Amino acid sequence: LLKDAHDEALLLSATKALTSIAAALLEEQAKIIRTPGALSLIIRRMQAPGLGVQVESTYLLANLVTHPTLREHVLQEAVRLDAVPAACELLVCGAPSAQGCACSLIANMASAGTAALGALGHPVLLKRLLGVLSGPQMVPQVLHECLRVVTVLSAYPALREQLHQLAIANMLFALLRPPAPAR
Question: What's the CA gap between 52 and 56, in Å, rounded?
Answer without folding.
Answer: 6
